[in-house]
Amino acid sequence: MTRLVLHVIGTLLLGVLLCGAATASAPEMPLEEGWEYRWGDSPLSADGVPQWSVADDATDLWQPMAGIGNPPGRNQQDNLWMRHRLPVGEWLQPVLFISSLNLIGEAYVDGRLIYRHGQLDEDGSGSFAGWVWHAIELPVDSAGEHLYLRLHSTYKDIGLWGKVAVMEKADVLPMIVADTRGDLAVSALCMVIACLAGLLIIARPQQWRLASIGLFALATGIMVIAESDASQLLLERPLLWDYLAAISYFSLPIAMALMLEHWLPQCRHWLLHSIWVAHLAYAIAAIGLALLGLTSLTMAFPVFDILLLVSLSLIGLILLRYYRTYDTDQWLVIISYAAFAGVLIVDMLVAHGLVNWYSVPVNLGALAFVLVIVLISIRFFARSQQELSHLNTFLEREIDARTKALEAHAERERERASILAVEHHKSQELANLIDRLQGSAALESALHHAMEAMPDILHPLHGAFYRPDPKTGNLILATAWPDHHQAPDRLNPTPPIRYLSASHPRASSRPVNSDPAGSVGNSQHASAAGGSQQQPHWLLPLDIPRANQQFQRLGVLYLLPRETQRWKMAHSDRTLQFIEMGLGRLSLVLSSISLQEELATMSYQDGLTGLHNRRYFDELMAHEAAIALRQNSSLSLAIIDIDHFKLFNDRFGHAAGDAVLRNVSRMLSNSFRDIDVVCRLGGEEFVVLLPGAQAEDAQRRISRMTEALSESAFRYEETPLGTVSVSCGIASYPMNTNDPNTLLTLADQALYRAKAEGRARIKIID
């Protein structure tokens, strides 16, 4: 890097010195008129010299040429010969200076090769070698001779381009330095801006929006130096400079679109985003294909120019759409953008020969655009700093206020932490209570354990728990704490109230049958009740859900919140919410225990027929057998079985069979005394227990039932099912056995005999 900088400085100093020394040399002579051309490539002589480079070659085939490039009649020709008679002058070391030629070529004087750019093969073809300026050294004795140029181009243009003149060799370097010093200054300034933007982004990543300015400045700086004639003085690598120029040129619209997105947020249109994405994709594809040798770099420029022209037009339409919304800074951005876009379009027209050649100040247009953006950024930064200063002052005041608020908040948080610790401890006690209650089988037992745990869980609050009196509806005192607290013996009914407090009553859909003032039911505690009237108090019900969205009230919790060292009235809402949550959890557990009790009760009933089930029969049988033995009273038992019921189910289906079971059960229930008990043993078997009845009594009642059954034609839905018959076995104590506990076995034997004799009959055990 140091060597390159020294080389640049040395070259510039040499150019300055030569500028002063060249004042006495002969003036340059333009050669932009008087050229002749000839399409195609010359055949080679035996010694490899092109025959067209000799003066006596068929002069009548050369045609006059208007200008210095693109003569008529190309017809897809890639080879062109041009010639011009060299002027006579007083040059010490004459050279032919050419700004650029398309694309590669050789120079001859009287058959002698004096210059070559690129490499032409025998067929006159070759690869692109870069767009550079040329200083062709002319032989001293070549004045008046023809100069021949053998050119090859696959580009849309062929021939010479820019400045063409014979001049002193010593004047070339000063001329290039003089013509490009502005380019060098612009490039250096753009590079500095790009570096500053990069450093700001590194220092403050939140300033990433400066990347668009940095990208544009970097692309402009590289493009200016790469397209400048001074680039060859810095590093003689034409193709490298052309690739750098292409990359930077293709990057300009990307950076421009990104800057417009940043500075004109109202113009963030999907089309603007698509434009820079399309240019990025094109730049990657064009450079990549050229590097891979799949296409020529020269062919990428015409396509890009068309794409750029379309993009500039579309961006202009987007900007025009929102013209009413711009502020002063945005108008400056738009004006500078329009000026630079105009410079690019003019440069494009010159490059494609649509207007006469002259040096378009693209570098100045780019510099102006960058400077405007930088100035606007500085203004924006200055305003931001001023606003930041005001904001800092405001924040200092806010910090003072917030500090005081935070100190107060910290104190509240300490109190809250203490409350949370207490709540955590109480939650653990409640969880332990619930674990103990899970093992309770009876609701009253579980409620008794809960009342025993209330004083510890609700400490330090004073309170009591009241149970409803099923006769009067009043709430009777069940327990109170602490020991010295004298709570009312009972609470009188009140309107529906969920929570009651001397200061904050809350309405509810479920009533608490209690006096809002805690009135006393007897005179013994009148003074205590009177005291409680002057204090805030809470009444919270303990309910469990029942069927039909009803609730069963188990009791009411009566609390007197008093400030202590561990509890403040300021925490009353939170404490009340915590207690309500605990009551909710307790209610769920007690509801589960109550439901289990109900299920145990329901386990004695058959779900299909509504009769008592086998479990109930077993317990009843043991009970009645004991009574019969103790009182020496009669006890009869009959087992009834529906005949061929399995075949019935197979024929009509189980749903029809269930309907028949329900009808038979109903007829059995209606055929016996109130003291007789009908149970379903299982399947199609039923058992009837007849306390105090003889076997003949049982047979008589069952006979009436079977007669009615034989006359009953069953239907299920619209299907006739016909009639069914039953078989019955009867046993009686003490007629058939001395042990009433064997009646079921004996009746079952009698039933077996009835079925064996043909069914549809009643048998009494022998």
UniProtKB/TrEMBL annotation:
Transmembrane segments: 184-203, 210-228, 240-258, 270-293, 299-320, 332-354, 360-382
Enzyme Commission number(s) of this protein: 2.7.7.65
Lineage: Bacteria, Pseudomonadati, Pseudomonadota, Gammaproteobacteria, Oceanospirillales
Low complexity bias spans: 521-534
Matching NCBIfam families: GGDEF
Cofactor list: Mg(2+)
Every GGDEF domain range: 633-766
Endpoints of the signal sequence: 1-26
One Pfam short name: GGDEF
InterPro entries attached to this UniProt entry: Diguanylate_Cyclase (IPR050469), GGDEF_dom (IPR000160), Nucleotide_cyclase (IPR029787), Rev_trsase/Diguanyl_cyclase (IPR043128)
Superkingdom, natural source: Bacteria
Catalyzed reaction equations: 2 GTP = 3',3'-c-di-GMP + 2 diphosphate
Molecular function as annotated in GO: diguanylate cyclase activity
Residue ranges, annotated region (Disordered): 486-534
Keywords: Membrane, Signal, Transmembrane, Transmembrane helix
Annotated protein name in UniProt: diguanylate cyclase
